[in-house]
Amino acid sequence: MRAIGLVLHPRRDCVPVIETITSWARARQTDVFGLAGEVVRANGLVKPVTEDELPERADLIVSLGGDGTMLRAFRIGNRIPVLGVNLGRLGFLAEVDVPELGSALNAIDDHRFTVETRSALCATMGEQDIVAFNDIALVRVPGFGMTEVMLHVEGHPFVEYAADAVVVATPTGSTAYNFAAGGPIVSPRAEGLLVTPAAPHSAFNRALFLSTTEKLALEVMDGSGEVALEADGRLMGKVQPGAMIDLTALPGAARVVRLGRTTFYQRTQRKFRLIGSATSEDFICD
């Protein structure tokens, strides 16, 4: 491995972990790069580069933080493999905790790992393209009424939602806003897009799972209130009634390092504490 790139959580103290990485790298004559605006916290241990330069220099990107930091590493990484190191709350994307980092780097250096691809989602509105790895959401702006959206499939109107938000999620994003809105958990190996209304006020209030090969668009209806467009929780702008947003899946847009230590379902069990969940027998009255 010639070089490692770092993406840091914006607030958590990453210096002890950076010291572990740079110590490992020095012993193998491996360079360590980081984003110029972030590595000022690294006490001079990391070489600063721009967002464009990081994927050009690095063979591996190490994300130090949680799922939000991983999503940012995906956006920056341009399909460079990303190793997620969990700092703080347990997430779905990180592969190792801090005590396991040294052995993880050894395994990657020895090519004892696999790469799991993740799809992204592109929202096109006019000349603007917005890419997300979890979800694109049309969210009601407080004080402006409900979000009213017509879902078009293969060029034809299919169903109209009136809701606080309409969420279009990748399988990766099925455990994020989609899940909070009542949508299902989907395997990251699945190829498709979820459409889920949040707090729906319409007769049809169910989530849909569509193929990545099907043409999908969202039309903001004339009777809708003002709508905010969010990508992975980031506000991208406001959308006015009458706007049409085309949505396209981008298969293989990100690559996640996996060491075979846990599965997606084991991480989901831990996150939601599903082991030992209540069963119907727990509610039987004697």
What does this structure look like?
With 286 residues, the protein is α/β, with parallel strands linked by helices. The protein folds into 2 domains: 125 residues, Rossmann fold, CATH 3.40.50.10330; 131 residues, Probable inorganic polyphosphate/atp-NAD kinase, domain 2 (Tumour Suppressor Smad4, Sandwich), CATH 2.60.200.30. 17% of the residues lie in helices and 38% in strands. It is built from 6 helices and 18 strands. A 6-stranded parallel beta sheet has the order 3-2-1-4-5-6, with helices on both faces. Strand 7 and strand 8 form a beta hairpin. The longest helix has 12 residues. It is elongated and about 65 Å long. The N and C termini lie far apart (63 Å). The model has no long low-confidence stretch (mean pLDDT 92).
Sum up the structure in keywords.
286 residues; alpha/beta; Rossmann fold; Tumour Suppressor Smad4; 2 domains; six-stranded antiparallel sheet; 6 helices; 18 strands; 38% strand; transferase; NAD+ kinase activity; NAD binding; nucleotide-binding; ATP-binding
